Amino acid sequence: MRKLTAAPHGLHGELAVPGDKSISHRALMLGAIAAGATTIEHWLAGEDCLHTLQALRAVGVTIERHGTTVTVQGQQGAARFNAPHAPLEMGNSGTTTRLLMGLLSGTTFTSTLMGDDSLQRRPMERVTHPLAELGVQIELSSAGTLPAQVHGGPVHGGTVQLEVASAQVKSAVLLAALNAQTPTVVVEKLPTRDHTEIMLRQFGADLTTAADQRTITLQPQPHLTGQTVVVPGDLSSAAFFLVAATIVPHSEVRLINVNLNPTRTGILRVLEQMGADITITPLPTTGEPRGDVLVRSHSLRPIQLTAPAIPAVIDELPLVALLAATAQGTSTIRGAAELRVKETDRIAVLKTELTKLGVTVTEYPDGLAITGRPEWQPQTTTLDSHGDHRIGMMLAVAALRSSTPLSLENDAAVAVSYPQFFTDLEHLRGGRA
Length: 433
Ligand code: S3P
Description:
Layout: E1 2-4, E2 12-15, H1 21-33, E3 37-41, H2 47-58, E4 63-66, E5 69-73, E6 88-89, H3 94-104, E7 110-114, H4 117-120, H5 125-132, E8 137-139, E9 148-151, E10 158-161, H6 167-177, E11 184-187, H7 195-203, E12 207-209, E13 215-218, E14 228-230, H8 235-247, E15 252-259, H9 266-274, E16 277-283, E17 290-296, E18 304-305, H10 317-326, E19 329-333, H11 346-356, E20 360-364, E21 367-372, E22 382-384, H12 389-399, E23 406-409, H13 421-429
Parallel strand pairs: 2-15, 3-14, 6-7, 10-11, 18-19, 22-23
Antiparallel strand pairs: 1-23, 3-5, 4-5, 7-9, 8-9, 11-13, 12-13, 15-17, 16-17, 19-21, 20-21
Helix pairs in contact: 1-2, 1-3, 1-7, 2-3, 3-6, 5-6, 8-10, 8-12
The protein binds shikimate-3-phosphate.
Shikimate-3-phosphate (S3P) is lined by residues 22, 95, 166-168, 171, 193, 314-315, 338.
Catalytic activity: 3-phosphoshikimate + phosphoenolpyruvate = 5-O-(1-carboxyvinyl)-3-phosphoshikimate + phosphate
Subcellular location: Cytoplasm
GO molecular function: 3-phosphoshikimate 1-carboxyvinyltransferase activity
């Protein structure tokens, strides 16, 4: 349990947040199957990415880490991985699990993937079904969940239509399709984050994305060469401070070197639409777009979000709910049923926790309606992350503007994506006005 504190004088200063989680996972995996060494700078040393690192070591990949600099000795294909001596532990990480299902299909052995209680409840057929269309064999529990047995073996190309808008599923298919003999076309329901595509191109793959942004064609058997990957700051981590500085009066915060890939910047569009005061300064780059974001506190109007807007803000929807809780009027988030199968059922958990703060929340099967108020009336002194990192950090941000003292249960969950979150928050709380 952690005591949360308000920030009556606002948040101030500059912050470089840790590296992007999605990109950190992918850099390890592509480094592992490339030829030669890959160096990853500003890698995210959070629990989820550490599970990817450990799993790759367990299949024989040599990986050295010094803080946030990681060197991966590429094996020239998953076929050169070694069978692990024990089940591979995925912890809480859906990205590790789903991407590895694709990557490990290219091995010559069977791997078992296990996860924590939350991960063991999350749906995996969304990955195994499209992978089966390429000939990949994966066995799941009767509930369609972990543990999974991934059988390495031949993969064939083809056209795969995805039923769920999910970058994890798309990435698993692309990673498996690297080993096919013929091209693979992946058609998404809606465009999702394209880090796998960008990085595959950087490593030398021949991959094209059609003008509709949701049809991707991958040529098989590319020669992937080890690279230097400089990971930008994670916008999903920066978002906690962008929102905090917006809703806590007297704040002015600059987040430096954050990922500005448009498939991820939904939270910036939401902030702009709600009337926030943000200034974006792009930085020169050859890979993933990146830049600085300056934010000053500002009052907000409500927002209505529907399905097409969801993928680019999927991980920030708890923060959108918090923004809505301070806006004058009722906001709605719909077309977001995916929130129910994240680290927690985030729709249910958001309703529970925001209601504790005295905010009026209506739950729908695919979203929420939230009626904001400038002053909350907390019904409790204890909030709960429910073991979900993003819920925990969102609640710590909420507490910054609370007039009554609050505590957070299960605060250790933040280490999944942002181990130094509370230290960075203190840095900005202590910043000079
Ligand atoms: C991720 C994709 C998203 C996101 C997750 C990371 C990725 O999940 O929520 O935090 O790195 O590909 P889905 O693919 O399930 O939408």
